[in-house]
Every structure is written in C-alpha cells, then in structure tokens.
Design brief:
By secondary structure, the protein is an all-alpha fold. It is built from 15 helices and no strands.
C-alpha cells in the first residue's frame, strides 16, 4: 500500500473525524425524531395512543384521525386561504421587490444612496408589533385577506440581494439597449428580468415559503375563524384542550386528543415537506446569489 493511501485511511479514521460523524449523526436523529414521532402517533391505533402503549413504534394502524381532519370544513377553508395567500403574496412581493431593487440599483437615480441607506435602516430598526398593528388597523384591512399580504409585501433582505445582482449586470448591456431606443421599463422587463432570473427564482422561493409558514400576522390581524390561514388553524388545534369542540364531530370524542393533533400537523405540513426537497438547491444557492459582484 502506498504512503498516500495509508495517509488517507489514517485521516479518514482519525478520532476527530469519527467524533464529527457521530455528532452529526446524533444531531440528524434529534432533528428527524419529532417528525417521526408525530407521524407514528397519527397512524397508531387510538386505543393504544390513549393508553400510552406506543413509544417508538406504531401500535396498530388507524386512519380515523385523518378522516376526521379531512372532513372538517375549517381545514379546507384554512388550506385555501394559505394557498391563495402564498400565490398572491409571492406574485406581488416578487414584482414590487424586483422593480424597487432595479430602481435603487441605478446610479443615475437621484437619491439612490439615500434609498439604499433607508432600506438597510429598516433591517436594523422597526416600529414593533403595536405600531405595526395600529397601522394595519387604521388602514382598514383588519380581519381581511389583505392584512396577510400588504404588511409583508416587501422584505429588505430580498431587495438588497436583488440590488446587488442588478448592480453586477454589465452597464454595457443597458447602454446598448438605450441606444436602440429602449426606455427604463423596456430595459427592466426585457433585459434585466431575464438576466436576473436566478436571483428572482431564489427570492420567489423565499417569499413563498414565508407566506406558507407565517403565523403571527394571522393571529394578530384575523379575527374570523373562516378567514384564518392554515398555520393559525394548526396553532388552534395544537393549543385546544378538547379537540371535539373544534371539529364538531361526535366520533372525535372517542379519539385521543393527541391523535387528532398529530394528524392535523401532518396534513398541514405535508405540502411544504413534499415540495422543499426539490427546492432545497435554490435555497442553498440563494445564500450566495447577489453577494459577489462581477
């Protein structure tokens, strides 16, 4: 065996390396175990769950908790609100953030440095929950669908990422377009948007995941149960002492509370869990996109 191979084997089985693998494996198990436990409880026999007979493995098999969950009208209304919120909020957020980032990134815009500093300032300081609530209230959108969209339409981090990306586009491209007679709107729509599509795709994913997982704005701004998004519905189920009061199903009183709660959690988080593995590469790419110029 060559010295190079022997050194490689020695480095591979070095104590710090082995300790790192063990630590990361234990950490991965700790991260996965809550999801595993929730799924296990949701599909176990309710009688075994009520008696506390299951620990690590499912005891029996039953989908009764899922039947009650999917038969609840409020679950579908909350799911519909979250889907519409994610679609509309993402479309408006990406459109306005891209337009604002392009405008601020242009050096010939009067006061562009002031706007950049103003954007960074909002990342460091904000009014807080009470002033924000008062603004939403006096705007007249409390307990409406738009209370979930308008206050969260702009995100400073996303705008700064797009600004850096637009600034990295060679100025010669914009100058050649102006020579051909294109104005700023045409340059933005037909030149900058296609060039910045990797950054825009990443920002789109950031905004979509935020809207799907958002909780606090639904709690603060929405009062009518039928208008609450999915995460607020999930929060109400988890905090409820007696789930049959929420489900209004006579058969739900025979099921343990834990079975109904875990089934609702799985049903609420399943869409994002299914989509996220296919979008993970864009999230990793989004960490670096726009951070390096040239």
């Amino acid at each position: 065996m060559s010295k190079k191979n022997s050194r490689l084997i020695r480095d591979t089985y070095d104590a710090p390396v082995i300790l790192s693998y063990i630590s990361m494996t234990l950490f991965a198990i700790l991260c996965v175990f809550p999801f595993y436990y929730i799924i296990t409880v949701s599909i176990s026999d309710p009688a075994n769950v009520r008696e506390g007979a299951m620990i690590l493995w499912p005891k029996g098999f039953s989908l009764e908790a899922y039947r009650i969950t999917f038969s609840h009208a409020r679950f579908y209304s909350a799911f519909r609100i979250s889907v519409f919120r994610t679609i509309i909020g993402t479309a408006l957020g990406v459109s306005i953030s891209s337009a604002m980032a392009y405008a601020v990134s242009r050096p010939y815009l009067h006061g562009h440095r002031f706007f950049t500093v103003f954007l960074v300032f909002t990342m460091l300081f904000n009014g807080g929950i009470i002033p924000t609530y008062l603004v939403v209230r006096y705007t007249g959108i409390i307990d409406t669908f738009w209370a979930l969209i308008l206050p969260n339409m702009l995100n400073t981090f996303n705008i700064i990422v797009l600004i850096n990306f637009f600034q990295a586009v060679p100025a010669e491209l914009e100058e050649s377009a102006k020579i051909d007679g294109a104005n700023d709107l045409v340059i933005f729509a037909k030149l900058m948007i296609p060039v910045a599509m990797p950054a825009i795709a990443t920002i789109t994913l950031f905004i979509a995941v935020y809207h799907w997982n958002a909780l606090m704005d639904g709690i603060l701004y929405i009062n009518t149960p039928a208008k609450k998004p999915l995460q607020v519905y999930l929060n109400d189920i988890v905090l409820a002492g007696q789930t049959e009061d929420l489900f209004q199903d006579s058969s739900s009183k025979w099921l343990p509370t834990m079975s109904l709660k875990t089934a609702t959690i799985v049903a609420s988080t399943l869409p994002i869990l299914v989509v996220y593995p296919f979008l993970q590469k864009y999230f990793v790419k989004g960490i670096m996109v726009g951070s390096v110029k040239g």
